[in-house]
Amino acid sequence: MKILMPHDGPDIAPIESSGEWHSPVFWAVVVCAAGLLAAMLAALACWVARRRATLAHKLGGKRGPDKALVFQPPRRATAVRSPGSATHYLRKSPSPTAAATPATSPPQPQPQPQPQPQLPTTKELSPGGLSPQTPTAPEPLPLSKELADAAATEKVKPTEPENNDGRLGDLHFKLRYEKEKSALVVSVVSCQGLPGREPAGPDPYVKLQLLPDKQHKVKTRVVRKTRCPVYDEDFTFYGLAPHQLAAITLHFVVLSFDSGEAMALCREIQPRSLKMRSVGRGEVLVSLCWQPAAARLTVVLLKARNLPKMDVTGLADPYVKMYLLYNGQRIAKKKTHVKKRTLNPVFNESFVFEVPAAPSASLDHVSLELLVLDWDRVTKNEVIGRLELGAAGTGSARHHWREVQAAPRRQIADWHKLKE
């Protein structure tokens, strides 16, 4: 057996006890981290406590976190408060034909706003016009921004007077000007004591317009069978500057809607020619010039007047066709432009016809036929009237033709009535 001596083999040295885990820097980091964690826990606990206190305050109790919830009785409902106003409002639309029901419970006392001056709102309707009068009816409903409590809005329908003593009744309305919108608001509230021939009462409604422009026209609804109608309708007129209000006049008209009864009628259907026969077909102004040397006849169609109505619009779309006849046969044709939507067209159009010169040019065997027609896009163009100028004509047409023959190279114009 071999015994190892101390100097034999590798040298082994012991580990020093003062390593990195026992250094001062390590313990300083541990202490800082623990302090930061403690501060965060404390802040979280503080926030939780404040949150619970806030919720408890909102619930209306001063109970602790482990105190049981106590039943809270329901609070009494209150009226809705108008934004920017100290008064309350609750709009209920009253029925114009039936009495309003009374409120189920008395209204809560509310502070009354200070009275404000208002424009005169009551007018007496008389045959001579509108004249101010002291209100005889309860205070009408306020406007939409100044409505009072629900109890104040409920009104009982006033009784209808039986005897008017010649008076035409009263009209109640209110005015308000909104400067930020440049708008005038007119509220037609009601009418009182209107007359009427109907036993059950008239069917009144109110028409309103602004004078002197007469551009804004409005009207209320019709309230059936009553002499004291209630409307409560607001009408807003925009685009009115404050300095224009002094020149504006409100014109009210109270009318009774009359539907009437149907009337049975029977009429025979007749052709349009019968109506034209009684009314007339109008006239045309024609100028003629005969040039024997050139064998030419110049026709100037100037205008027409008093043509009959041919369209549903009460107008016509006239134009003229012209035919040159030689020995009774048509040898040339011309026509004017269409004049839209008129009964008195102005043509001012000139036409030249070549007359046969065998053996010598003359107007003895020549005549001129004119047809005035109504142009139509869908149906056939309808003849309004006709005119024939020539030696074989009658009346003014024959006289005009002889004047042209006797004075060659001269323009001679004359009016002629149209015939069938």
TrEMBL record:
* Residue ranges with Basic and acidic residues bias: 146-168
The Gene Ontology biological process terms listed for this entry are:
calcium ion-regulated exocytosis of neurotransmitter; vesicle fusion
> Where is composition skewed (Low complexity) in this entry?
93-103
Domain C2 spans what residues?
167-279, 280-416
Q: Which PROSITE patterns match?
A: C2
Q: GO: which molecular function terms?
A: calcium ion binding; calcium-dependent phospholipid binding; clathrin binding; phosphatidylserine binding; SNARE binding
Q: Where is this region: Disordered?
A: 59-168
- Transcription regulation: present as a keyword of the record? no
Q: Which UniProt keywords apply?
A: Membrane, Repeat, Transmembrane, Transmembrane helix
* Keyword Transmembrane (UniProt): yes
- What ranges does the record list as Pro residues composition bias? 104-118
| Family matches, as InterPro entries | C2_dom (IPR000008), C2_domain_sf (IPR035892), Synaptotagmin (IPR001565)
Which Pfam family is one of those matched by this entry?
C2
> Where does the sequence pass through the membrane?
25-49
One Gene Ontology term, aspect cellular component: presynapse
Name used for this protein in its record? Synaptotagmin-11
